[in-house]
């Protein structure tokens, strides 16, 4: 397996050349007091060392040995405890945190790249700090001062980790059905009782305490999602001086045996009258949890990208080394017994598919991170617009990046031929590890419904318009001849997206199933169109650097061309299947399946 | 996991209603002396019992425990030895064999369904008899009388298994590079020396002897593929009376640890001056091996279908049982806390994608099997035509069925949500097991080149014409109004396939890379078009049965509509990417990746 190398140059290209964070951050005063471009560069540089040298090396044994469970105790795989200690001591657990409580206040544009590095190095490892950072975000936004002083500071310090307790055996997507109960106590706390499943990092030995963010219902709560509240339930109670108090009746019943992410503990967590503290308002727990969930959804999207980048790097190294058969157009390496497989069109197809998807996903993820930063640190109209774009793009990041990421993991494995199926090469681990990203944190089908039904249809198309207006403005401003090869197909794709959205929304007025039947294809259509937008932006910057001695910019322009020639055309089939409507799906009675 | 149920009704529908084997077989005298429709039905019925009751139950522990290796000895997982014994005693190892040597002489239309059943039950198990049947085919066709009497009879009897020894560490696809040597001996035998990797069933404890079909080169052989000969090398020598003689210097060096098919032994096999016997003529070994390889390629295609059928059955059962959220168009099960997930458009999309692909793959596989039977048992022009169709369709069966099969395994896992990622449900095993089918027996990229470069371009389009003429004739004969919903898009797809073939062949005259760059998409385009042809045939038969009390026929018509509405349109994007040509792929220098 190739040694992982963080694509720092591509990250810097996006930050500085494409999205020009120097001037962006200066216009966001609450942000610019904490970060400048030099700090950002230094942070990414340091983070790349941790990812390459500390985390990537433990991934294979994490997969082979995995976490173990013995009588309620979870032991992480060899090396994880040490790696986490190094990571926490480096201050990385504070990276995106609220500076008032010990966080470093870095923008999402930095933390998103940091997340990508962790995921490329080892998705399993990334989940422990990833869940903690998401929980911290929710506590920082919705918790009271006492919760923040007592718990948030310790999460940022890397002392304590956190988990996200939503799912129950009978209630996965449908959270309205949960049964976990929270009974109010005289001291203002609650006693939480219930069983949660699929709890990532629900129990482990990396930190001395684990803070569970738990969805539960008061005994007299309204039925359904409107009766759900959010509680912070520590594994060990915490004394007033911050030291650990008594055990809080939170136990791990078992861990799951899974297809992949073997080094991530996926736990059954039992709350047996555990003391918990309300986060946010009663019965508004879902909204508070969504602060964490939306963070994690973008993070899971980045998992897809992380695995895909690793897959590309591995497959590229293998393809360059592996000699097998001759080029169709004549011998390329007469001194060798065969040419490298890089000469074969179909191998190039697989590698360039990966390259174009990865660089496109990274750019789109940086774009979404930028909107998140404007939404968090900006004000006025710009802030409102960014808020809408974040809402629109979150399901796309989650589902589109993970669908493409899985494709890239599989494609990289295919480049390896038979060796891709053998465990020792590590390539098949990427396929197994990244597969979960399409499922957890709301399946990709749920993301598609969130996009089309909740956001696009829910806003009667207004939320789409925020995006299309921005792209149209970009198109109008980009009139140079050399950019027309990108602008013309981008315009076509955008028009088609607008038209089909309108058609779907009209048809949904008479048959609402239209939305469910179109959702998956619609999300992909949107994804390819949005990715065309950021690819055009990247091509524009790279073309402006020509002529250049730096291969990077030439490669960027050529990869942009590849994207428009070979990936954007996937939209044609998606439009055809969206147009097919609900009839072919609902004409078939359940008994006829 | 749902209990596996063989889709016998669909198989019988294809045999009797769609392909009318009763009259087909009567026109093939060499075949009809061995089989009639009653025998065929009885065989499939019996075989379904073995698959459901004997083989399917061992699959999970085969995955969990796998094969083990100790000092050259391979032990299969618990239950495999007993299952193989039952299988062999039932006579199934003789099913497709030459009746002159103890085979049952059943047509491929029967044995292909038998293979599907085995693969749905357990791909790992299916590989042991599958490799043996392929080796037997090569020996039956190319071996001399002595080899047939001594070895073929014992393979049919299920006493001895066989393996296929092609790959060496440095030579996967590029067989011209192999180094294994065969030195002629005075008694007419050869001493074979060399190391082979990735040898499925190269060593195991299911049979007392294993016959290796080994590609090797004589010391003075011409370089490259034209110097390759094929040898039968038994693990134990065989005495004149058929009893086992001394050990033949064939040893297993290790087994691979793989992503899936854990119960299949993938071996490093070392030949250390092992006594071997020439199969066919000297230096024509590749052609003799291709008899086996083409058999296995169709068989591997069927592995994709087998896993996909299992995935569909599991996911369907889960979807019917799992209640979660309400239908978009209003509550469907007011007596339950939520509706079953069958009400959601996106779940139906995943299930119907699987259903339409599986029934389409089964029909296309039956069509190919029919051509194989005509090629084997027919004569004259019909035989010549069938030969061409088999050559054309073999790479499509291998690559298209396995690509669709993997998609269906993944889709079924997605229907399960988080449970699909947990090992105990068995669904993720299907994804891991079926992934190899896209890789081994010639990667799917190699299959695509075989189709487009070797067969279509190699015949200057003549081989394509054999297929298109048949479909055109069918279209011309199918003029009823009710069939036009299928005939019109089939005609369009066929015309597009013809046009783009012509364009690619013309462009390839000036730039041969055109072929390599188009190959993968072309194979899929061909696959979807060929599948539309068999779906039209199935729809026609099912429509003719209307009105009917039998849900089966109604389901068939509706699934055909689904195929034309939602799967055939994938061709639009494929045409666009084929049209993109080599420029986007080859403009990028290796250094710019």
UniProtKB/TrEMBL annotation, chains A, B:
UniProt xrefs under Pfam families: Acyl-CoA_dh_1, Acyl-CoA_dh_C, Acyl-CoA_dh_M, Acyl-CoA_dh_N
Q: The Acetyl-CoA dehydrogenase-like C-terminal domain covers which part of the protein?
A: 467-588
> What residue ranges are annotated as transmembrane?
none
Q: Which UniProt keywords apply?
A: FAD, Flavoprotein, Oxidoreductase
Acyl-CoA dehydrogenase/oxidase C-terminal domain location is: 283-454
Q: Which is an annotated GO molecular function term of this record?
A: oxidoreductase activity, acting on the CH-CH group of donors
**Family from the record:** Belongs to the acyl-CoA dehydrogenase family.
Q: Which PANTHER family match?
A: ACYL-COA DEHYDROGENASE, BROAD-SPECIFICITY LINEAR ACYL-COA DEHYDROGENASE FADE5
- Please give the function described in this protein's UniProt entry: Involved in the assimilation of dimethylsulphoniopropionate (DMSP), an important compound in the fixation of carbon in marine phytoplankton, by mediating the conversion of 3-(methylthio)propanoyl-CoA (MMPA-CoA) to 3-(methylthio)acryloyl-CoA (MTA-CoA).
Protein name as catalogued? 3-methylmercaptopropionyl-CoA dehydrogenase
Q: Which organism is it from?
A: Thalassotalea piscium
């Amino acid at each position: 397996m190739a040694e992982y190398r963080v694509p720092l140059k591509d990250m810097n290209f996006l930050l500085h050349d494409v999205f020009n964070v120097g001037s962006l951050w200066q216009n966001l005063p609450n942000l610019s007091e904490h970060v400048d471009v030099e700090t950002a560069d230094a942070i990414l540089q340091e983070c790349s060392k941790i990812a390459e040298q500390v985390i990537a090396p433990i991934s294979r044994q994490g997969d082979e040995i995995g976490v173990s469970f013995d009588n309620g105790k979870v032991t992480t795989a060899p090396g994880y405890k040490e790696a986490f200690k190094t990571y926490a001591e480096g201050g990385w657990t504070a990276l995106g945190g609220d500076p008032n409580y010990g966080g470093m206040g870095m923008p999402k544009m930095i933390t998103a790249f940091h997340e990508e590095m962790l995921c490329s190095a080892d998705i399993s490892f990334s989940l422990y700090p990833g869940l903690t950072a998401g929980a911290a975000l929710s506590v920082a936004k919705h918790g009271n001062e006492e919760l923040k002083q007592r718990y948030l500071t310790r999460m940022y310090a890397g002392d304590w980790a956190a988990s996200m307790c939503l799912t129950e055996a009978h209630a996965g997507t449908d959270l309205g059905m949960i049964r976990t109960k929270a009974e109010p106590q005289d001291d203002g706390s609650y006693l939480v009782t219930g069983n949660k499943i699929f709890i990532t990092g629900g129990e482990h030995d990396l930190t001395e305490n684990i803070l569970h963010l738990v969805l539960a219902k008061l005994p007299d709560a309204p039925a359904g999602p409107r009766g759900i509240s959010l509680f912070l339930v520590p594994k060990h109670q915490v004394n007033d001086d911050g030291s650990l108090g008594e055990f809080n009746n939170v136990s791990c019943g078992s861990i799951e045996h899974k297809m992949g992410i073997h080094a991530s503990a996926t736990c059954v967590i039992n709350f047996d009258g555990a003391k918990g503290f309300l986060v946010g308002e009663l019965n508004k727990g879902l909204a508070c949890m969504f602060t964490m969930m939306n963070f994690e959804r973008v993070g899971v999207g980045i998992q897809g990208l992380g695995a895909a980048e690793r897959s590309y790097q591995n497959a590229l190294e293998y393809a360059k080394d592996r000699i097998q058969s001759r080029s169709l157009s004549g011998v390329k390496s007469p001194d060798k017994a065969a040419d490298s497989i890089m000469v074969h069109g179909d191998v190039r197809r697989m590698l360039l598919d990966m390259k174009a998807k990865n660089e496109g996903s990274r750019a789109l993820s940086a774009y979404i991170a930028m909107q998140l930063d404007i939404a968090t640190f900006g004000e006025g109209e710009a802030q409102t617009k960014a808020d809408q774009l974040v809402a629109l793009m979150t399901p796309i990041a989650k589902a589109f990046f993970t669908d493409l990421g899985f494709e890239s993991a599989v494609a990289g494995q295919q480049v390896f031929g038979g060796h891709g199926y053998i465990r020792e090469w590590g390539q098949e681990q990427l396929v197994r590890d990244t597969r979960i990203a399409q499922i957890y944190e709301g399946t990709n089908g749920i993301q598609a419904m969130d996009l089309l039904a909740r956001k696009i249809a829910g806003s009667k198309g207004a939320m789409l318009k925020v995006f299309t207006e921005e792209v149209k403005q970009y198109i109008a401003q980009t009139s140079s001849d050399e950019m027309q090869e990108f602008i013309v197909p981008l315009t076509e794709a955008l028009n088609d997206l607008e038209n089909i959205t309108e058609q779907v929304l009209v048809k949904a007025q008479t048959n609402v199933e239209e939305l469910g039947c179109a959702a998956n294809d619609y999300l992909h259509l949107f994804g390819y169109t949005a990715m065309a937008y950021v690819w055009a932006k990247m091509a524009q910057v790279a073309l402006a650097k020509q002529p250049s001695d730096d291969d990077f910019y030439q490669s960027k322009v050529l990869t942009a061309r590849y994207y428009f020639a070979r990936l954007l055309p996937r939209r044609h089939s998606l439009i055809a299947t969206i147009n097919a409507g609900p009839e072919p799906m609902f004409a078939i009675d359940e008994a006829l399946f």
